[in-house]
Amino acid sequence: MTTLYLTEAGTVLRYRNESLIIIKQQESKNCRLAEVTLVVVLPGVQLTDVVIAQLLDRGIETIFLRQDGQFRGRLQGHFATNPTIRLAQYRTVETTFGMALAQKLVMGKVRNQRVILQRRNRATGGKISELTEAIDLMSAYAAQLTNTTTPLNRNELMGVEGICARTYYQGLRHWFPAQWNFSGRNRRPPLDPVNALLSWGYGVLLARVFSASVQAGLDPYLGFFHAIEPYRPNLVLDLMEEFRPVVVDQAVISIIQADLLTPEDFQPSPDGVGIWLGTMAKKLLLGELERRLRTSLLYPPQNRQLSLSQILLEQARSLGRCLLQSSLDYEAFVIK
Amino acid sequence: MAKLYLVCYDVPDDKRRTKLAKLLEQRCQRVQYSVFECPLDDATLSSLLEKRWLAVLNLHEDNLRIYPLDATAKQQTRVYGSQPPYEPPDYLIL
């Protein structure tokens, strides 16, 4: 089944004979709606009213992103809601059980981040002492997170998460050749190409996890770790934590390692402060993210191979079940 | 599970032929003027599509043939001068 990414401004989408007709300057391309499962739309792409109606009626997931890759919104037709899951979610937020869940989600992220650094450490034969130190430090913090019977409070948890994130992103430097000038994470706006790629990737991941949470019957806006800040899809931010390193960071590493991009594929943002991806960089990143999301991995709870995008949905469903049963069965998806 | 069907027709009447071709194009990939490859499952084909295709035809003059291709047939297919047997792409970045 096909994921359709519409990246170029000036593209027009029409509907004819059960197909999407995608018109870009001189060329036009057909895409049968029966084969489309997901449409990702970037700014400057026009959808006719008939196309929008078709997408809504067929329940084809349609996601809109901003120019900097941030999630803008999605089309939502009728969908099956499960009020009991939402009620369970509302009852859990701000409870000790909710904090224990938050802690599990954070631990999933820290463990996966650590794996990414370990892969580099193995590849470099453990010769980079900063990398080894970062890995050890993260192990120590991960150990603090394993006790969920008396979970950390939100401030403590945020502290641990913050230290691990800083350590991790500094360690990540050793994945990127020096000319990329990556010295750690910055955002809003990202100040260097690698950060721009990461921000873009997190935007796409957020959009995908958003759909997964809606499909699983969860309220995307009410979280456990990223609790209740308004205008922010807090639960989506929670759920995507364990997938950031697995999907996005790994995709960015692959692209940079493949040596396909040069600094010319990036441009200053219109305000002149940040860095944006050019069309080529965008397409490459989307292709790599798509390949990652279609990679099959062993999903231990079901003991079978699932693609990462299926695992996203299964993890959202698993969270829903934990909430309904008030059990701490949720296990983050951890790579090896 | 979707398998691949090969659909071909002989329809002498222009109007009926155009109508059938348009219907086929909704779900199938045209590979020659009157030959289509369709990634379909049995249920969709028999319950939804076949009836609509047949409704267009006059079976005294026209004919429609639908051959199932199994996985091995697809692999063994030899194609010259055009694309290999149709498969919907995983993703399209446009």
Helix content of chain A: 40-55%
Radius of gyration of chain B: 14 Å
From the N-terminal CA to the C-terminal CA of chain B, the straight-line distance is: 28 Å
Described by strand count, sense and barrel closure, the largest sheet of chain B is: 4 strands, antiparallel
Which parts of chain B are unreliable, with pLDDT below 50 for 5 consecutive residues or more? none
Radius of gyration from the alpha-carbon trace of chain A, in angstroms: 20 Å
Largest interface: A-B, 24 and 12 residues
Shape of chain B: globular
Key phrases:
heterodimer; A: 336 residues; 4-stranded mixed sheet; 16% strand; B: 94 residues; alpha+beta; 4-stranded antiparallel sheet
Provide an overview of this structure:
The complex is a heterodimer of chains A (336) and B (94). Chain A is α/β, with parallel strands linked by helices. Chain A contains ten helices and twelve strands. Chain A has a four-stranded mixed beta sheet with strand order 1-5-7-8, with helices on one face. Chain A has a four-stranded mixed beta sheet with strand order 4-3-2-6. In chain A, β11 and β12 form a beta hairpin. In chain A, α2 crosses α10, α3 runs antiparallel to α4 (129-145) and α6 (193-215) runs antiparallel to α8. In chain A, 41% of the residues are buried. Chain B has 94 residues and is of the alpha+beta class. Chain B is built from three helices and five strands; from the N terminus they run βαββαβαβ. Chain B has helices at 14-27, 42-56, 71-76, and strands at residues 3-10, 29-32, 35-40, 63-69, 91-93. A four-stranded antiparallel beta sheet of chain B has the order 2-3-1-4. At the A-B interface, β1, β3, β4 and α9 of A face α1 and β5 of B.
Secondary-structure map:
The complex is a heterodimer of chains A (336) and B (94).
Chain A lengths: L1 E5 L5 E5 L2 E6 L2 E6 L3 E6 L4 E2 L1 H10 L2 E5 L5 E4 L8 H10 L3 H28 L5 H17 L8 H19 L20 H23 L18 H7 L2 H15 L8 E3 L6 E3 L1 H16 L1 E4 L4 E4 H18 L11
Parallel strand pairs in A: 1-5, 2-6, 5-7
Antiparallel strand pairs in A: 2-3, 3-4, 7-8, 9-10, 11-12
Chain B lengths: L2 E8 L3 H14 L1 E4 L2 E6 L1 H15 L6 E7 L1 H6 L14 E3 L1
Antiparallel strand pairs in B: 1-3, 1-4, 2-3
